[in-house]
Amino acid sequence: MEAWGEFIDVKVNAPEVLRRQLRRARKGSLLIGTVTDPYQPAEKHHRITRRCLEALLERQFPINVLTRSPLVVRDIDLFRQFEDIAVGLSVTTDREEMKKIFEPKCPPIQSRIEALRRLHDSGIATYAFIGPMLPLDTERLLEMLTGSVDEVLIDRLNYSNKVKSLYRKSGLSQYLEHAYFTQTALALREGFEREGIPVSVIF
Where are the domains of the chain? Predict the structure, then answer.
Protein backbone atom coordinates (compact mmCIF):
# COMPACT_ATOMS: atom_id res chain seq x y z
CA MET A 1 0.00 0.00 0.00
CA GLU A 2 1.35 3.42 -0.97
CA ALA A 3 2.13 5.90 1.80
CA TRP A 4 -0.22 8.83 2.35
CA GLY A 5 0.94 11.79 0.31
CA GLU A 6 2.81 9.62 -2.19
CA PHE A 7 -0.07 8.98 -4.59
CA ILE A 8 -3.14 10.64 -6.09
CA ASP A 9 -6.30 9.36 -7.73
CA VAL A 10 -7.24 11.62 -10.62
CA LYS A 11 -11.00 11.89 -11.10
CA VAL A 12 -10.78 12.60 -14.80
CA ASN A 13 -14.57 12.73 -15.26
CA ALA A 14 -15.15 15.25 -12.47
CA PRO A 15 -15.95 18.19 -14.81
CA GLU A 16 -18.56 16.16 -16.70
CA VAL A 17 -20.14 14.91 -13.46
CA LEU A 18 -20.19 18.48 -12.13
CA ARG A 19 -21.96 19.78 -15.24
CA ARG A 20 -24.70 17.17 -14.81
CA GLN A 21 -25.15 18.08 -11.16
CA LEU A 22 -25.26 21.80 -11.88
CA ARG A 23 -28.30 21.34 -14.12
CA ARG A 24 -30.44 20.66 -11.05
CA ALA A 25 -28.41 22.43 -8.36
CA ARG A 26 -29.66 25.54 -6.58
CA LYS A 27 -27.19 28.38 -6.85
CA GLY A 28 -25.06 28.80 -3.76
CA SER A 29 -21.51 29.69 -2.79
CA LEU A 30 -18.87 27.02 -3.33
CA LEU A 31 -15.58 26.82 -1.43
CA ILE A 32 -12.96 24.98 -3.47
CA GLY A 33 -9.94 23.72 -1.57
CA THR A 34 -11.16 22.95 1.95
CA VAL A 35 -9.69 19.43 2.12
CA THR A 36 -7.68 18.78 -1.04
CA ASP A 37 -5.67 21.50 -2.73
CA PRO A 38 -7.23 22.18 -6.15
CA TYR A 39 -3.86 23.17 -7.61
CA GLN A 40 -1.69 20.16 -6.88
CA PRO A 41 1.22 19.64 -9.32
CA ALA A 42 -0.85 17.12 -11.31
CA GLU A 43 -3.36 19.89 -12.09
CA LYS A 44 -0.84 21.43 -14.46
CA HIS A 45 -1.27 18.42 -16.73
CA HIS A 46 -4.80 17.17 -16.04
CA ARG A 47 -6.54 20.60 -15.72
CA ILE A 48 -9.41 19.13 -13.69
CA THR A 49 -9.83 22.27 -11.59
CA ARG A 50 -9.78 24.54 -14.63
CA ARG A 51 -12.45 22.48 -16.38
CA CYS A 52 -14.60 22.49 -13.24
CA LEU A 53 -14.24 26.26 -13.06
CA GLU A 54 -15.40 26.50 -16.67
CA ALA A 55 -18.51 24.51 -15.74
CA LEU A 56 -19.21 26.76 -12.75
CA LEU A 57 -18.65 29.86 -14.86
CA GLU A 58 -21.38 28.77 -17.27
CA ARG A 59 -23.84 29.02 -14.36
CA GLN A 60 -22.10 31.93 -12.60
CA PHE A 61 -21.93 30.11 -9.28
CA PRO A 62 -20.27 32.25 -6.58
CA ILE A 63 -16.94 30.63 -5.72
CA ASN A 64 -14.20 30.91 -3.15
CA VAL A 65 -10.88 29.23 -4.02
CA LEU A 66 -8.19 28.36 -1.46
CA THR A 67 -4.79 26.94 -2.39
CA ARG A 68 -1.10 26.91 -1.49
CA SER A 69 0.00 26.88 -5.11
CA PRO A 70 1.03 29.75 -7.39
CA LEU A 71 -0.34 27.66 -10.26
CA VAL A 72 -3.64 29.37 -9.42
CA VAL A 73 -2.57 32.41 -11.48
CA ARG A 74 -2.94 30.29 -14.61
CA ASP A 75 -6.70 30.68 -14.29
CA ILE A 76 -6.85 34.46 -13.87
CA ASP A 77 -8.60 34.69 -17.22
CA LEU A 78 -11.48 32.58 -15.85
CA PHE A 79 -11.59 34.27 -12.44
CA ARG A 80 -12.06 37.67 -14.06
CA GLN A 81 -15.25 36.44 -15.72
CA PHE A 82 -16.98 35.46 -12.45
CA GLU A 83 -19.41 37.96 -10.99
CA ASP A 84 -18.78 36.77 -7.41
CA ILE A 85 -15.38 35.31 -6.58
CA ALA A 86 -12.60 35.39 -4.01
CA VAL A 87 -9.25 33.64 -4.29
CA GLY A 88 -7.04 32.96 -1.31
CA LEU A 89 -3.65 31.47 -0.61
CA SER A 90 -2.55 29.81 2.59
CA VAL A 91 0.41 31.73 3.95
CA THR A 92 1.19 30.12 7.28
CA THR A 93 4.44 31.93 8.06
CA ASP A 94 6.94 34.39 6.63
CA ARG A 95 9.87 32.10 7.40
CA GLU A 96 11.02 29.64 4.77
CA GLU A 97 12.82 27.52 7.36
CA MET A 98 9.49 26.94 9.14
CA LYS A 99 7.79 26.06 5.87
CA LYS A 100 10.49 23.46 5.21
CA ILE A 101 9.76 21.81 8.58
CA PHE A 102 5.97 21.80 8.46
CA GLU A 103 5.16 22.11 4.73
CA PRO A 104 8.20 20.52 3.06
CA LYS A 105 6.49 19.76 -0.26
CA CYS A 106 4.54 23.01 -0.57
CA PRO A 107 5.58 25.93 -2.80
CA PRO A 108 7.87 28.61 -1.32
CA ILE A 109 6.23 31.36 0.72
CA GLN A 110 7.41 34.12 -1.60
CA SER A 111 5.84 32.42 -4.62
CA ARG A 112 2.48 32.47 -2.84
CA ILE A 113 2.87 36.16 -2.03
CA GLU A 114 3.64 36.87 -5.69
CA ALA A 115 0.57 34.89 -6.74
CA LEU A 116 -1.61 36.97 -4.41
CA ARG A 117 -0.13 40.14 -5.86
CA ARG A 118 -0.83 39.07 -9.43
CA LEU A 119 -4.39 38.08 -8.59
CA HIS A 120 -4.98 41.33 -6.71
CA ASP A 121 -3.49 43.43 -9.51
CA SER A 122 -5.86 41.66 -11.93
CA GLY A 123 -8.85 43.02 -10.01
CA ILE A 124 -9.73 39.76 -8.25
CA ALA A 125 -10.75 39.81 -4.57
CA THR A 126 -7.97 38.12 -2.63
CA TYR A 127 -7.36 36.90 0.90
CA ALA A 128 -4.61 35.26 2.90
CA PHE A 129 -5.38 32.32 5.15
CA ILE A 130 -2.85 32.25 7.98
CA GLY A 131 -3.75 28.82 9.22
CA PRO A 132 -2.48 26.86 10.85
CA MET A 133 -0.42 29.80 12.07
CA LEU A 134 3.20 28.67 12.25
CA PRO A 135 5.98 30.55 14.08
CA LEU A 136 6.37 33.88 12.31
CA ASP A 137 7.61 37.46 12.42
CA THR A 138 4.53 39.66 12.73
CA GLU A 139 5.93 42.82 11.16
CA ARG A 140 7.54 40.98 8.27
CA LEU A 141 4.38 39.07 7.39
CA LEU A 142 2.36 42.29 7.56
CA GLU A 143 4.78 43.92 5.15
CA MET A 144 4.73 40.93 2.79
CA LEU A 145 0.93 40.75 2.52
CA THR A 146 -0.15 44.39 2.70
CA GLY A 147 -1.18 45.63 -0.71
CA SER A 148 -1.88 42.15 -2.06
CA VAL A 149 -4.92 41.08 -0.04
CA ASP A 150 -8.40 42.41 0.62
CA GLU A 151 -8.97 40.26 3.69
CA VAL A 152 -7.09 38.03 6.14
CA LEU A 153 -8.26 34.93 8.01
CA ILE A 154 -6.22 33.64 10.95
CA ASP A 155 -6.75 30.17 12.41
CA ARG A 156 -4.81 28.14 14.91
CA LEU A 157 -6.57 24.87 13.96
CA ASN A 158 -6.09 21.75 16.07
CA TYR A 159 -2.61 20.31 16.13
CA SER A 160 -2.42 16.52 15.98
CA ASN A 161 -0.02 14.62 18.21
CA LYS A 162 2.21 14.10 15.19
CA VAL A 163 2.45 17.86 14.59
CA LYS A 164 3.00 18.57 18.29
CA SER A 165 5.82 16.03 18.26
CA LEU A 166 7.38 17.81 15.28
CA TYR A 167 7.25 21.13 17.16
CA ARG A 168 8.98 19.59 20.18
CA LYS A 169 11.57 17.75 18.07
CA SER A 170 12.41 21.05 16.34
CA GLY A 171 12.78 22.91 19.63
CA LEU A 172 9.65 24.98 19.02
CA SER A 173 7.48 23.91 21.97
CA GLN A 174 6.91 27.49 23.09
CA TYR A 175 4.96 28.16 19.90
CA LEU A 176 2.34 25.58 20.89
CA GLU A 177 1.21 27.74 23.80
CA HIS A 178 -2.20 29.33 23.40
CA ALA A 179 -0.75 32.62 24.65
CA TYR A 180 1.61 32.75 21.66
CA PHE A 181 -1.21 32.27 19.20
CA THR A 182 -3.44 34.84 20.94
CA GLN A 183 -0.77 37.53 21.19
CA THR A 184 0.48 37.04 17.64
CA ALA A 185 -2.99 36.83 16.10
CA LEU A 186 -4.08 40.02 17.86
CA ALA A 187 -0.90 41.82 16.77
CA LEU A 188 -1.51 40.74 13.18
CA ARG A 189 -5.14 41.86 13.34
CA GLU A 190 -4.16 45.24 14.71
CA GLY A 191 -1.52 45.70 12.03
CA PHE A 192 -3.73 44.71 9.11
CA GLU A 193 -6.66 46.77 10.35
CA ARG A 194 -4.38 49.82 10.48
CA GLU A 195 -3.97 49.26 6.74
CA GLY A 196 -7.73 49.00 6.25
CA ILE A 197 -7.67 45.22 5.75
CA PRO A 198 -10.40 43.34 7.67
CA VAL A 199 -9.29 40.35 9.72
CA SER A 200 -11.16 37.37 11.15
CA VAL A 201 -9.49 35.37 13.92
CA ILE A 202 -10.64 31.89 14.94
CA PHE A 203 -9.43 31.32 18.49
Answer: 14-19+27-202
Question: For the domain with range 14-19+27-202, which CATH number is right: 3.80.30.30, 3.30.450.20, 3.30.499.10, 1.25.40.10?
Answer: 3.80.30.30
Q: What are phi and psi of 5, to 5 degrees?
A: 90, -5
pLDDT in tens for each of the 203 residues of the chain? 566 567 788 899 999 999 999 999 999 999 999 889 999 999 999 999 999 999 999 999 999 999 999 999 999 999 999 999 999 999 999 999 999 999 999 999 999 999 999 999 999 999 999 999 999 999 999 999 999 999 999 998 888 899 999 999 999 999 999 999 999 999 999 999 999 999 999 98
- Residues contacting 74, CB < 8 A, separation 6+: 44, 50
